[in-house]
Amino acid sequence: MFGFPLPEKEQNTPDKERAIVVHLYLSQTKDVENLMEFQTLAESAGVEVVATLTTTRSAPHIKYYVGQGKAQEIADAVKDFDATVVLINHQLSPAQTRNLQSLCDCRVVDRTGLILDIFAQRARSHEGKLQVELAQLRHLSTRLVRRLGNQDQQKGGAVGLRGPGETQLETDRRLIKVRIQQLQNRLEKVSKQRDQNRKTRQKADIPTISLVGYTNAGKSTLFNAITDAGVYAADQLFATLDPTLRRIQIQDVGTAILADTVGFIRFLPHDLVSAFKSTLQETTEATLLLHVIDGADDRKNENIDAVNQVLDEIDALEIPTLLVYNKVDRLDGIEPHIEYNDDGKPVAVYLSAQQNQGIDLLFEAMRARLKNELVCERVLLPTTSGQIYTKFYQQQCIKSEHFTEFGDRLVEVEVDKIQWQKWLKQYPELTEFVEFAKWEC
Fold first, then answer.
1. 28-49: average pLDDT
2. What is the band of 237 on the pLDDT scale with cuts at 50, 70, 90?
3. CA 103 → CA 5, 66, 78, 249, 414, distances in Å?
4. How far apart are CA 309 and CA 267, in angstroms?
């Protein structure tokens, strides 16, 4: 299942692999939540965790990461439990991975490799598969090792071609480099198509609402409750990877686009963030973020910090955000409701997507956050400003109008504040026309 070659004696493994989970505490304060999350990741990958080994060190061991004594203990556990893979809840260097594999005589997969494997299982769309393959190749490119065999050194056999050739390791690196470039070119085409669709929505002033949150917080379930899209949702980490967009209707706002994106996690590998750049672009360009939080999770505050860290990494932390506390049906004494700040603006919604409770409250909060502030202005338009008057007429924002004794048109408009700011930039003389109207009145 994992992307590492199996030793000869393990070629015929059962469908469900047996795994040893290893976690290293690097401080006196033990991060038990991190270990529990990694165990859940292992279960999501479809393996059976037969043993969990932990140790404490002030710094990682340079050869085995966990220390020589603990490494031997892991090797003994592999034999005792007949394990086929060792899962390390840290990011190992290529040398540390090879050393542990040689000592344990089985595959060793670090945290990044495990997450990549889960992503490979979950990807369904063409774009998702390309993104996962790109991240896997970037991870694998630093972990190639020299192979033993007759084809270690490729040599020419014709006149003028004899002599030292390209080693198999160099050939593998070159082929991976070529494949990475091909994947990047394909994803760039997909990204351009997404940008074009996004610009079309922006021209039509269609707001985009993006669901973000920690994995398994219930984003896809909430997406289905809002849109009836039938997106795959399950009680597992990274249940869905492929982004899904649907149109929704919000009162006083009109048509909006709701986007379901990949879930975040602590220490999300940088290769994944880079590979999923085009997917995460839906988040960075969103009008409003719905930060979905598992309200019944004791680690919800830590999960919020982890999500904000990823949002900061992709430059999306400053986008207006509405907190959505999901799964309130599992909490005692908390009913679905909206939480407001001192200015009367909704900042959080408490609901249960699975029980379909509080969805109407979410629509009410989205309406309040997306409904733009209106401005009312009087404008004195001279006879030469027909183009500006046409813009007013097309926007249907004219409340009243009449002509002055000099033939100028005095217009009162009520328009969206953002649209008004756009007109002020497009027509600098509009500021003077507003001042002229004040004199006239």
1. 84
2. low
3. 15, 13, 10, 59, 75
4. 9
Chain position carrying tokens 């492929």? 242
Q: In what order do the strands lie in the sheet with 409-416?
A: 374-381, 409-416, 398-403
Residue with tokens 């469908």: 15
Tell me: the pLDDT tens digits for 115-163? 888 888 877 777 778 878 888 888 777 776 555 444 444 545 444 444 4
List phi, psi (to 5°) of 334: -120, 120
- Decide: 291 and 143 in contact? Cβ < 8 Å: no
Asked if residues 273 and 280 have their Cβ atoms less than 8 Å apart, the reply is yes
CA distance 302 to 409: 59
Q: What pLDDT shows up at residue 245?
A: 83
| pLDDT over 70 percentage in the chain | 81
Cα gap 181→92, rounded to integer Å = 25
Closest to 287 in 3D by CA, of 195, 371, 165: 371
Q: Count other Cβ atoms within 10 Å, centred on residue 146.
A: 10
Alpha-carbon distance of 260 to 203, in angstroms, equals 22
Number of other CB atoms surrounding residue 426 within 10 Å? 11
CA distance 169 to 100: 21
d(CA 225, CA 229): 8
Question: What are the phi and psi torsion angles at 40 (to 5°)?
Answer: -65, -40
User: In sequence order, what are the residues at sequence separation of 6 or more whose Cβ sits closer than 8 angstroms to the Cβ of residue 156?
Assistant: 162, 163, 165
Of the candidates 430, 412, 409, the one whose C-alpha atom is nearest the C-alpha of residue 421 is 430
Residues near 55 by beta carbon (within 8 Å), at least 6 away in sequence: 23, 24, 25, 66, 67, 70
| Coil vs helix vs strand at 400 | strand
Measured between its terminal Cα atoms, the distance across the chain in Å is 77
Closest by CA position to 214, among listed 121, 297, 295, 304: 304
pLDDT digits (tens, 9 = 90+) for 199-231: 776 666 688 899 998 888 888 889 889 987 666
Predicted confidence at residue 150, as pLDDT, reads 47
Least confident of 163-167, 299-303, 352-356: 163-167
pLDDT at 289 over 70: yes
What is residue 344's three-state secondary structure? coil
Query: Mean per-residue pLDDT for 33-38?
Result: 84
Residue appearing with tokens 């930039």: 425
Strand pairing report for 48-56 and 85-88:
unpaired
